[in-house]
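Shipment paperwork, digital attachment
Item: protein structure file
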Amino acid sequence: MKKKRTLAALLSLFLFASVILSGCGSAGSDAGADSNAGETGTLDKMTLQLKWLPQSQFMGYYVAAAKGYYEEEGIDIEILPGGSDIIAEQQVYNGVADVGVTWVSSLLKYQSEGWDLLEVSQVFQKSAMLLVSKASTGINSPADLAGKKVGSWFGGNEYEIYALLEANKLNRDKDLELVQQDFTMNQLLNDEIDAASAMTYNEYGLVLEAGYKESDLNVLDMNEEGVAMLEDCLFVSKDWIADNEDLFVRFLRASIKGWADACADPEAAGKIVYEKDQSISLEHQIYMAKEVAKLVAPEGFDPAKIGYIDKDAIQQTADLALKYGLLTSAADLSEDTITSKYWEEATASK
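Attachment content:
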């Protein structure tokens, strides 16, 4: 009899412990399923893959992180630097990163090849691409490129140049020489090429820092020439966004705040980026920040629309990409490949 009572007591203790453990497990599961991390005291982890190395091109994200905007939205953000051997589209598609930064033309190419990627915000509203030459070469207009050596990085960066040439009735194979350009401006400075590709926020500044004045240089601006293609945008994989809509909206809201602050005070933003990575000088980071601000919120642009997707500008990018061979068929610009849904949610009054 005593033995039976002992077994009964042990069984009761076992059942009691099971209930307690079950209750603990349920509480943990509820916390993990709660999309509002602020209510549970935990932060949702997210990774952002940059297109290139840490620099003021991406200052909005670094400012948002430094000022705690991601944390306020319940996010523990990890910003992954890019590089010549890192392709943001592959990183996001393979699940290494949740959100990526790339150029629109590059994203259109991957989408056309069947990659389930979705553009969700357009950060740069203008192209930063220039062709820069010394005033002494006499390149005052696109027509003056005839007979010249023109540098291009290729690798997807050449299509605005192709568009510029054709728009001015120049045959890129016969009327001039396109030369592989490295990521310095030494070929231009050493007179190895007559005109060089340059981003407003980077390489053009390098030429100025080398001692040239703006009056010493001639610039062909793709925006002014009517052949601009959009650059930095945010994109995600369709599978990831299907399960993380709320998380992405919170990320985008924090990022937009970071970009707004960075554009309002680019000098402070450049200093924040410099503290993160000192591979280039503080002066150059600040120069970059000031120029990037002009792309994110151009003159006359409403800062409240930072990250807005201009479908007409996207269409021009897609049309040029098709016309000059980046795409083999017209791009699908439906909600299946590009959407403003999350931007609208992120910018709506809370």
